[in-house]
Amino acid sequence: VEASYVSEKSLASRTKDGEDVAIMMNAGLALDMPFLEQTGAEGVGLFRTELQFLIGSQLPSVASQEALYREALDLAGDKPVIFRTADIGGDKTAPYMDHGNEVNPAMGWRGVRMAVDRPGLIRPQLRALLSAAAGRTLWVMFPFVTLPGEVDDIRELLDREIDRSRRREKELPNDVKIGAMIETPASAWRADLIAEKVDFLSVGGNDLAQFYFAADRDSERVQRRYDPMNPGFLSFLKNTVEKVSRTGTPLSYCGEQTADPVTAAALIGVGVRLFSLPAAFVGPFRRLVRSLDAKATAEWLDSNMSQPQVTLRSSFREYLKDSG
Ligand code: PEP
Ligand code: MG
């Protein structure tokens, strides 16, 4: 982390017009955790637990899962860590998992779909999370939710695991907060209904953009054609943010489009107030927040959102430059 950003890590993450924008960071390994302190991020908004599943040649044991989660929590101190349960499949494949012959694995058997079908995979993970967070708050988030009912299915599995631990008189978390990731157009469209069923939501913009544009996130050729600064995509996000904000359920954005400051500014403009980003972008993002007038940015975007063009990137960049 660059020295000039380190010196700014305690500065308020507040726009020029006084809007607070919370900044958390993405992680996946214990090695990432020191960046919390170095960047001044408020917590881990996305801990990708599947990394541990992908590096080994077999399923990690409950004990090794629990050890990783406990270490992450210990290293985070008072800051929250939101564990995303394993999203295996799509772009993240484990050699020992048989997905059958899927022509479109990104749209295949992954995330909560797999968890609900194979409780034998998710229940040990939930057990590991519950014991690692004993005596503290457990924040757990479920990937690739498509329909509101999938939250009920996964909650049932979690409740069963909590009952099991209780029967065995194991110490439990003081509180369990559950979240759903909004990563498909279907879940974004019904985000208000999903919001009613959870404690928090997080937009996985990498997958959401992939499915909004029907453009493979790993295909450079198609990625180049579709910019998240597309006015249609921005209005889609704005609609989702507004729907959710009426429910009072907090919503974050953890997609990595925030690596680009122009897009990050637009996300603030469409109303996102809580972000989780790769550690390297926390400092630059805080600086951006502090330079921005959120209300004026929102107004500029509103008046340009019905444009038919491919992207608002260059005009919005000009606007940002002119507004200092
Ligand atoms: C996303 O889809 O935006 C996300 C944060 O999850 P991942 O990149 O791990 O799929
Ligand atoms: Mg995703």
Automatic annotation (TrEMBL):
<protein>
    <recommendedName>
        <fullName>phosphoenolpyruvate--protein phosphotransferase</fullName>
    </recommendedName>
</protein>
<comment type="similarity">
    <text>Belongs to the PEP-utilizing enzyme family.</text>
</comment>
